[in-house]
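Forum > Structural Biology > Help requests

Title: Can anyone predict the 3D structure of Oxygen sensor histidine kinase NreB?

Hi all, first post here. I have the sequence for Oxygen sensor histidine kinase NreB but no way to get a structure on my laptop. I'd be grateful if someone could post the structure tokens.
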Amino acid sequence: MKSIIYCFCFFISVNTAVSFSQNNTRIDSLKVRLTKRTGIPKIETLDSLVWSLRKKKDSSGIKYALQELQLSKKINYTKGEVNALNFLGKIAKIQGHKIDAETYFLQALSIAKKNNLQHEIARGYNELGIFYEKENKIVAAIDAFLSSSESFEAQDNLKAAAKATANLGDLYKEIEAYPEALEYYLKSLAFSEKIADSLGLARIYLKLATLDKHRENYVEMLENALKAKQLFVKLERPKDVFNSNLEIGRAYDYLDQDEKSKEVYLETLKLIPEYKIKDASSLYHNLATLYKENGRIDSALYYYQKAQKVFIEKNDTKELSTSYNNLGNLYLELGNYKESLLNFNQSLALQETIKDSSLLQKTYVSLSNYYQTIGDFEKAYNYKDSSENVREDIYKKMNATNRFELGYMNDKREMEAQKNVVEKALLNAEQMRQIIIIILIAIVILFFVILRNRKLKQQKKESELAFEQQKLATQLEKEKQEKKLEEMLQAQERKAISKMISGQEKERERIAKDLHDRLGSMLSVVKIHYKSVEDDLQKIKNETKSQYEKANQLLDEACETVRKIAHNMISGTLTKFGLVPALKELKQKIEETKMLQIELVTHGLDNRLDNSTEIQLYRIIQELLNNILKHAEATEVTIQLLKREADLNIMVTDNGIGFDIKNLTDEGMGLKSIKARVAEMNGNVLIDSSQGNGTTITLEIPT
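Reply #1:
Sure, ran it for you. Structure tokens for Oxygen sensor histidine kinase NreB below:
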């Protein structure tokens, strides 16, 4: 048994490694392709790259999404903007930044609406629906999915419309609005039938079967589950066939056809290894319930416990609550009252977090039976009374609230539709009135044209002459104004150049004076000391050593002076204009050396940070670039600064030779300095590098 488990774990590990390797290969291929593309093809490649990186926890997906967004804006490719914003929303949602996610989705939808991109509008509503559904904002999700469905249907994209409509059915079923759920499931079914989408039909038949269970319409439940299975078998989708069998078995059970139900469950049980089913908890639970009904208590207990173990592992609260309730009833039949009550109480405890009126009612009935069995008739009566009133007293209130909100939303949509019809009618009437007015005006104008035709011919020569004179005068005036403007611009340009040259000369004079008065004098003294050594080599050794030491000290002071002069030259830009302008100036200076090409990408840094933080960040990036120039043998560097809600993300990536992080035992002073500065700002440093693949250093700085 242990060997089987080890083999299974090994198989899973190998599969995971292969999948991870394939994904990395695809990402590397897309990165290579990216360097060879421009314009829209490059945006499409970035789109594919972001899709592959969207689930990674680092900032790599954000980096390429921002590149896609900036390039799309640069070439005015609105579709690329919308796609990039949707990807940023998905990444933010995956990383738990809910506010950012919703903001990105709404921005994408707004741009799509502004530019009348119908497909992107429908897709944007669908993304919002998925987001709101996960946030349990049911009414907002329904409104979004409804808009998505209507938009896809208007575009005749029935496959997408079927999915959005099915999502609507799922949401209505979740709030126990079964008539509305049925309406949208049938509408989705009609879309799939119209385009002969076999997979879409199979999925909606299975959803209908699940809905029929809640509606207690078990004959139709069986019919829909059988239709779903038949299609899934033709499509060779074993996992979906497995799920269809579960609904078929349940339907037979509800119809009191226990032997057929058992036959289906046992047949499905044999398919688990063949279909590679990872989660068979529902099958175990259904089989246990069937055995319990047939009096096979030991088998029922075995499968209940087996299912319960899986429910606990995957934290399935609803199914686990049902399992505890069923186990409580089983222990009650066995006379194990302690275990029975324990399971009933565990079921009730879990139901505080779920809202399933039918399950709560069943648990109250079970507790009523329990207390009746042990002779506590007062509690038995109380739980029986609660079971009869729970739906009306508790969950009907919730459903009434939801239905009120849904009704309000539907009324609002109907009012908007009626308003649109009225506005359209008014617009048509206004257009007709304008057409009539235009026709009348045209008739009047034509009449006067005919009357004045002769007069106009006589005035034609005079008009042409006057026009030529006016044209000449206008041309002369225009040339005069242009000449005046050109003179003003030249004067302004000369003034600016004069000021710039004056400033440069003053700076050069200051630097020359510093070098002459401070560094020059120091170096002269050094020369004298060395000369004294040269002229008097026969003197005592200690005196010679003292002169050398003095010379070395003066050289150190000269170096320190040069460093201070260089510091004075750079600190002005950073202090006056901030981090981004200073980095742009640094980028320009390095690129002038022809040793490195630098791409600087910033987002969200419209306002300056505090002065000390900007100085620290500038020094860090300066040191990183210095290390790249010294060690990386790189030709290209990308610097990305992304300001988020609570932190600043900095990513510096080069295409150099890289290094093996595992062998990095002795860090240089530069890297130690960087880590010390980041630690002082309570930030984190992440280094990602390997031989031949460049280096990426990511900084997360709280703001």
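The radius of gyration is 39 Å. Strands lie at 597-603, 636-643, 647-654, 684-689, 695-702.
Shout if anything looks off.
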